[in-house]
Structures are given as C-alpha cells and as structure tokens.
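Model: Ready when you are.
Researcher: Fold this.
Model:
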Amino acid sequence: MMTKLLLVEASPRGEHSISRNLAKTFVAQWRAAHPDAEVIERDLAKMNLPYMNLPWMGASLTPAEKHTPEMKDVLRVSNELVAELLAAGHIAISTPVYNYNIPASLKSYVDHIVRKGLTLGMTGEGLVHGKKCTVLMASGGVYTEGSPIRVRDIATMYLRLILKVIGIEDVTFVSAGGTKVVDLGERSRTEFLQTFEPAVASAVQS
C-alpha cells in the first residue's frame, strides 16, 4: 500500500517562515525516501478555517444517519479534513509558536479533526492508529531540555497530548528555537535552517 504524507502548514509568513522552510526540507527528503508516494498539502493560512459554533457542535454530536442537509453542509470541511488525516500514513505539522502556543488556525484545525465516532471513540479512546507524525516547529524562544523557560513549552505539550488523545503516539518534534536571531538580522535564514537539517533528516528516517 502506498504511503501518503499529509502536510499541514500554519504559518502566515510564506517563504519567510522558518517552519515552512523546515517543512520544505522535510518534504523534499521524504519524497526522496518515498519516490512513489503522494503528498497532500493543507495550508491553513489560505483556508480561513471556521471556528467551532453551536450549529457545528450540534451536527458533530448527531449520528450521521440523522444529519439534515444543513448539518452535512456545516460538517463538510471537517469531514474532508478528517478523511485526509485518516488516509495518510505520515502527518507533518509545520507551525510557528505564538505567545507560547500554536496559532489559532491550527487550534481550529485540531477542533475539526477531533471528532467523536471518527477519530475519538465515544468513551474517549483514540481511533487513529498506525500513523507517524512529525512536528516542525519554529519559536523565538528556546524551550528544549535544559532551557530555563522549558515550562513555557505549551505548544509542544499540547500537540503531543492532542495527538495521543486521537491515537497517534509515534510523534517526532523538530524544534527550531531561537528564530529571533534571524528576525534581528544576527544570522541569515539559510544559516539558521542549516543547523536543523540533521534533525529533519533523522525525522524522515525515523
């Protein structure tokens, strides 16, 4: 069976984004390792993904056989995102860190894919098994082991938790902390990214 890679990108910074450049390197190396595989890209910065509201919640908690046409329409995007996730063998999430956590667009994506009966069992057990996930994360601060601000690493803790909740436990993080040196012009983007190439290569091979 052909392996599919689903790439979910959250940064609005386009080619200037560190997390997107990490993802670009990851996808290139992943394609080289899986030349016949398919890569599906989901760019949250271009989606204007809606947040949860009362109609969505009502529809998501109603059994599919009882869905009205309106409910089906409300859940259309969510169903599409869930189907993409379930069809992929490897999920790559590319995201910056804003105020110690993930961007609102990625949080909305999470809300759309954590679905009772689809990715989450009715008693809370995860239903998504046999998949790998690589998180390519860029942050101004450095939150890795030994950092004095490690307790502020909410983004990593949250993503690891929510992925485990739906059943994905094989998760690798490539954490590119200290991006402010690029924003301040102290190091070039290319030079900064090069320091994380071994970690990206290791994530592809894991």
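Researcher: Now this one.
Model:
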Amino acid sequence: MAEISRQELIALRLASHRLALGDAPKPAGFKRVEQAVQWLGAVQAQEYAHARWAVGSRFAHAAAITDAAVEQALAKRKVVRSWVLRGTLHLVAAGDLRWMLALAAPALLTRTAAAYREAGLDEAAFRKILPAIQQSLEGGQQLTRVELFAALARRRINTEGERGGRILYRAAQAGLICLGDPLGKQARYTLLDEWLPPQPELPREEALRKLAQRYFASHGPATLADFSWWSGLGAGEARAALEMAAPGLARALFEGGEVWWSQRTPALALPAWQLLAGFDEYVLGYTDRQAVIDNSHAGKLMTPNGLFRPALLLGGRVAGTWQGELKKGALSINTAPFTPLPRGSAGALRLAAQRYAAFIGLPLAEVR
C-alpha cells in the first residue's frame, strides 16, 4: 500500500474541506448554504457565530457568501441546528436531520444511559417528560431554555442541575425538538415535526454508507477511528459503514495507519494564511490532530472552560489563534501566533482577515 507524506495529507484535507483556495484548479464552488453544510455532513455548532463562519469559509470567494445569508438559510429552514452527533450541537442540512438522528441516537443513548439514571431519568421518567415537552411547544411555540423549563415546572417536572440539559438532549435525539429562530443571542426550542416537513425513512445500512461517504469525502484523508469518534457510532457499525463506502474511496498509509478519502478529491496547492472558526471541523473532526498541530501547542487552542479557540492556519497547519474585536464600527483582528511569524506574512494575513471582515459585513481596521 502506498504511503502519503504529511504535506500530501494536509493538501488533500484542505481540498476535502473546501479550504484550499489557492491558484490551482478548484472543485465547483458552493452556491447555497445548505450545499456547504450537506458537504461537511454536520458542522459543530456550540458557538453559533463561529459555526456560521465555518460554513462561510468553505465558499470559494468571499463575495459569494455573508453571515446574514447563513442566518437566512436557518430562518428559511434549509439548515437546522440541533444535537445530532455525539450529543453535541451541530448544523445539518434540513433533509439530513432525521436520518442522522435515527442513525446516531441508539449508540449515544446506550453510552449515556448510566448518567441519565444517576439523574433520575429512566425510560419511565421520559414517558412523562417527552409528552410534557410536546404539550409545551405544540402550535408553533418557540421557547427559550428558561421559558421551556418554566413550562415543565408547571407540569411538575424537575429540570434542576444537570437534569434540564439531559432532558433537552434526549428530546432532541428522540426527534422531538430542534432549535428554532433565536431570540437575540438566546436559543429557542421548537417541535421538529412542526419546524420541518416529514422525510422518508432511510434504511440503516443506506444511512451508514451515506454518512461514511460524507465524512471521508469532506474530511479525508482520515482513519476509521476518526470516523467512529466524529459520528459517535460504535466501532462495529463504523467499520461496516466504511466497508460499504470503500469502493468510492482511495486508501493509503500515513505514519503507519490506514487513511481513506474520496477518489475524486483533487490535490491542490496549499493556501497561505487562513482564519478558521472556533470548533472548525478541520481541527475538531479527528481523534488525532498531530498532522495539523504540534502537541506542544495543542493546549493553546482550548480555553479554560474547554472551548476550541479560532485557529490561525498557515499552509494547512495551526500556527496560532485569533480573535475579532469591534472598534468604532470596524473589525480588528488580534492574532496570537505560537511562534514568530515568517517574514512577509503581513500582506497574506491581512487578505485572510479581509475575507472574514467581508463575510460579517464590516470594514477591516487592523490586523495585529
């Protein structure tokens, strides 16, 4: 079996993620937000603003997409935000939500059953709780977390401590709720069946194959362990899914392990500087991140409360972090490189910053 180098793996991953925007021939660009989200399979979305940039950064040209356009896609229900894979908030294309939930939820519920029981949330409890949530939200209601918990309290359902969060996760994984239109910066919950039209069920084998195809096309080269972690599937089902998707995948060795990616992935020239979103799939979507970030710097990507900071990318490797700051109606980008920047970086770094500024619709004041 052929072996690929780190540089080859990075070039292929950038192309798979649609982040390779150099002068080399590019794959056809996305025209709609839901196309980009569907390509990635699922976009981790705890930090809503950064999730929108994670989508926007996949478009070939900055002028092709804006932050407002991503928000509009959610408002028009082309894309939806819910707890999908690993019990974590994601953006997914509306037509994918139900089959992904049906595929991923059983393994997740098995793994979390003990924690639910410790919180007094067994199947008997949910036979009372889920109908109460439905009654609280039916008729097109959209409620904030506080409002929904108050409605449940009136029905004598305890949401104190960890119970409230676990109740919401379970309701989402059961396909009962999803996130609707936000109220300012507050998320609001609504009934999935009232929010999105029904979709035909997907046979489990077809869903497994489809999810593996999506992951390895958009994240490859990647390992079976990467896919199993990202999807939340058990090891056996993840392997079966990969075997079904394998006829359309290329395979090679990377540092002694097998990696797979789409046979149609073009190898593109490495771009220079890029500003990635916090929790971006390019960093987060793998169990082993050594190919793109040195172990000595990996901890610098995390905040004290466990959030992934926005990453500063140089030639496909994480070279630092960045943060946007609004000053007098203009955007300032503050960078924190892990090591001194190479000479001549200022111009390319400013171009990357201008791309983000154009996305959020602000003039760029400075990059420092």
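Researcher: Key takeaway?
Model: Residues 22-27 have pLDDT under 50 and may be disordered.
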